[in-house]
Design goal:
The protein has a seven-stranded mixed β-sheet, sandwiched between helices. A six-stranded mixed β-sheet has the order 10-9-8-11-12-22, sandwiched between helices. The chain folds into two domains: about 280 residues, Aldehyde Dehydrogenase, Chain A, domain 1 (3-Layer(aba) Sandwich), CATH 3.40.605; about 190 residues, 3-Layer(aba) Sandwich (Aldehyde Dehydrogenase, Chain A, domain 2), CATH 3.40.309. The radius of gyration is 24 Å and the shape is globular. α3 runs antiparallel to α5 and α4 packs across α5. About 40% of the residues lie in helices and about 20% in strands. The chain is of the alpha/beta class. It binds NADPH dihydro-nicotinamide-adenine-dinucleotide phosphate. The site of NADPH dihydro-nicotinamide-adenine-dinucleotide phosphate (NDP) has 29 residues, from α8 and α9.
């Protein structure tokens, strides 16, 4: 099928000179920093120009967030906060096609996925957080302290917003992950300064404008653009009270150290080497559908996606035959073509990383399906690779241990349940694991022994606003969603009274 038609408003947004979004305004480039280009990974064309934030602009953004926190947002009527978040969700949907197009043009995500995740899921998450604004509450407590002079005591706790939050966002789901941070922070009464990835800054800039239209007061949401150094300066700012980071383990460790130096609160959502484990009774057709959909969507650039698959030895050949057949028929091409399932890798450094891992697989002669970089549909350009199946020889193979963050799934057989558990836990990561089985006893025995923030059964990667999400071991610190996010964005103040 041909590519979809780009909307005039998409083209107009690309043509603008973008800088920062501070105190409710798109700030024109200051001219003190050199603009960088946003590249379409399907064509390698530069599609927009962004000026990175100067030190002065980082200071202005934090000052705007601090002023709006102290003067407006922390004490804003909770119901009215929820109304505004709901209104922003409506505006994201109303402008959904423009947002989806901007996302696909800058990240290579298929247009269907951009509509589903960056638009619809963003709206769903915002509405979930909107519902919490009126339900954030402390406790009433009865102290046991002995009375000296006949007085009695009572105590209660208040959940108070923590202050200015710095949100550092990766490039794989740039709007949805920004909304996770923004929705949680704003629901609790915090204000934010967000630093998007240099590769995907466009959609959140557009949504910041919609936030103003939704009535969210100026300064509550601010965006500073640039490379890692802008993020590093932002989190060191003395008026930032909390850092919420999503990204790689290597950067997350640096961010954690920097934040800890000033005792700034910090939550980290980091990488994973997630396992799908097929037990002896697994429904192979169901697992094939799940792996195809959840292991390879967005070219595997999904933090919770399965990258290594342990299969009971009696079922490995059947799985590889069926998955290999399905994978070779999946259409690859322009992400603006609605019939396409696999588009390009999102950016050049990530493409080079994935090509490195394909070389590793080819050198060891372990490729079952795929394994090559391929020419893109426009003049052979773009960062395209084949979705790939690799058969591992050992649980310690590079491809069974290192996060590729690409469309490469490695498969290995196992025999016994105890062996499977030690294989699942044989990684420094602990984000997500799936069990594919209808054996209830085995499932219930295994769940407590799996070192992982989430365990899925007969599905993988599903993230829902009602269910806490985060990692153990090197996959992170803290939880997003559920009611768990309230702990991360509020301080508990205790009040004790004598009467
Ligand atoms: P990076 O860690 O490279 O970057 C994440 C963000 O941090 C970017 O905005 C980056 O800016 C910024 N940054 C870089 N250096 C610093 C620094 N010293 N201080 C502050 N900020 C900095 O990750 P990617 O963007 O490459 O994202 C991919 C990774 O994210 C994968 O490992 C993936 O597993 C993980 N991830 C985890 C998720 C989870 O929820 N657990 C969800 C999604 C992704 P810039 O890009 O401009 O350099």
């Amino acid at each position: 099928m041909p590519d979809i038609q780009l909307l005039p408003e998409t083209l107009a947004f690309l043509d603008r000179q973008h800088g920062q979004f501070i105190a409710g305004e798109a700030v024109a480039p200051s001219g003190t920093t050199t603009a960088f280009g946003v590249t379409n990974p399907a064509t390698e064309d530069v599609i927009a120009q962004i000026s990175p934030a100067s030190d002065a602009e980082i200071d202005q953004a934090v000052a705007a967030a601090k002023a709006s926190f102290e003067q407006v947002w922390a004490d804003f009527n909770p119901y009215a906060r929820g109304v505004m978040l709901n209104k922003l969700a409506d505006l994201i949907e109303a402008n959904g096609e423009q947002i989806a197009q901007l996302e696909t043009l800058s990240s290579g995500k298929s247009i269907n996925l951009s509509r589903m995740f960056e638009v619809q899921q963003s709206a769903i998450f915002l509405r979930y957080f909107a519902g919490w604004t009126t339900k954030i509450a402390g406790e009433t407590l009865q102290p046991s302290f002995p009375s000296m002079t006949g007085e009695q005591y009572s105590a209660f706790t208040r959940r108070e917003p923590i202050g200015v939050v710095a949100g550092i966002i990766p490039w794989n789901f740039p709007l949805m992950i920004a909304i996770w941070k923004l929705g949680a922070a704003l629901a609790c009464g915090c204000t934010v300064v967000l630093k998007p990835s240099e590769f995907t800054p466009l959609t959140i800039l557009r949504v910041a404008e919609l936030a103003r239209e939704a009535g969210i007061p100026d300064g509550v949401i601010n965006i500073v653009n640039g490379m890692g150094d802008v993020g590093a300066k932002l989190i060191q700012h003395p008026d930032v009270r909390k850092v919420s980071f999503t990204g790689s383990v290597a950067t997350g460790k640096k961010v954690n150290l920097t934040a800890a130096a000033d005792l700034t609160r910090c939550t980290l959502e980091l990488g994973g080497k997630n396992t799908a484990a097929l037990l002896k009774d697994a429904d192979i057709d169901r697992a094939v559908g799940g792996l195809l959909q959840l292991g390879y969507i967005h070219q595997g650039q999904v933090c919770a996606a399965p990258e290594r698959v342990y299969v009971h030895a009696s079922r490995l050949d059947e799985l590889l035959n069926k998955l290999g057949g399905a994978l070779s028929q999946a259409p690859m091409g322009s992400p603006l073509d609605e019939s396409v399932l696999f588009g390009p890798i999102s950016n050049k450094p990530q493409y080079e990383k994935v090509c490195h891992y394909l070389n590793v697989a080819n050198k060891e002669n372990r490729v079952v399906v795929g394994g090559q970089a391929v020419a893109g549909p426009v003049n052979g350009k773009g960062y395209f690779v084949q979705p790939t199946i690799v058969q591992a020889t050992s649980a310690n193979d590079i491809l069974m241990q290192e996060e590729t963050f690409g469309p490469i799934l490695s498969f290995m057989a196992y025999e016994e349940e105890d062996e499977l558990l030690s294989l699942i836990n044989n990684t420094p990561y602990g984000l997500g694991t799936s069990l594919w089985t209808n054996n209830l006893s085995a499932t219930m025995r295994m769940i407590p022994k799996i070192e992982s923030g989430t365990v899925w059964v007969n599905l993988h990667t599903m993230v829902d606003p009602a269910v806490p999400f985060g990692g153990v071991k090197h996959s992170g610190i803290g939880r997003e969603f559920g009611s768990a996010f309230i702990d991360e964005y509020t301080e508990v103040k205790s009040v004790i009274m004598a009467y």
